[in-house]
Amino acid sequence: MQKGRALYTGKAKVVHETDMPDRLILYFRDDATAFNAKKRGVIANKGTINAYITAKVFSYLEGRGIPTHFLERVSDRELMVKKVEIVPVEVVVRNRVAGSLAKRMGREEGAPLRKPVREYFFKSDSLDDPMISEDFILADGLATEDEFEAIKEKALIVNELLLEMFQKASILLVDFKLEFGRADGQILLADEITPDGCRLWDATTLEKLDKDRFRRDLGKVEEAYLEVVNRLFPDFPEEVSL
Ligand code: TMP
Mean pLDDT throughout 130-147? Predict the structure, then answer.
């Protein structure tokens, strides 16, 4: 398999075509942005850490019945994935109040919720990813009824599976963002699952171990990403070169 030209450069990844029409290579960079790229920086080794975490987490989910676009980790920073048409809806799942929900509702970060909360945002850099309703998603045709039912259901199952995985590493999964894609008439989990798009707190101390350290200038950003990958996957240091 040959990596081809860059099709799309995102905020943290580059998407390359390959010599196979239905496969892409995702290249994970160290660049970090926040607040829709109003804040920019670099987190050392983030690309390697995030490619590794995504590969492992997507394999874990595949093995438990969640179809994903992930095929293979081809280098420290590169994953081969199935080409999908991304559904332009970011799905946020929350187990505790934090971030924009805390702000919107005037609640303390960390406040418990009686059940997981799903929220939907329209994927648009120029509009700053506005929050949208389920009705709008269907009325505007962003997803069909069947697709959206699959997305909503999978989001909750992914949450249960991730809660269990992170809990074993003494990490509290506060919230996270998912993206889905269509391929061959199926809905596949796509994009990445990494500390860039999750809130991960130490289960005992509640110390933040995710991109909020960068967003909020808390320091020890790279250390936090390394802590997460090493706790989840103790083989990490032997399987990459940092
Ligand atoms: P929020 O509290 O800012 O709405 O974020 C909820 C979760 O979604 C949090 O874990 C971070 C993640 N997220 C992204 O991955 N990309 C984004 O553009 C935003 C706004 C949030």
Answer: 98
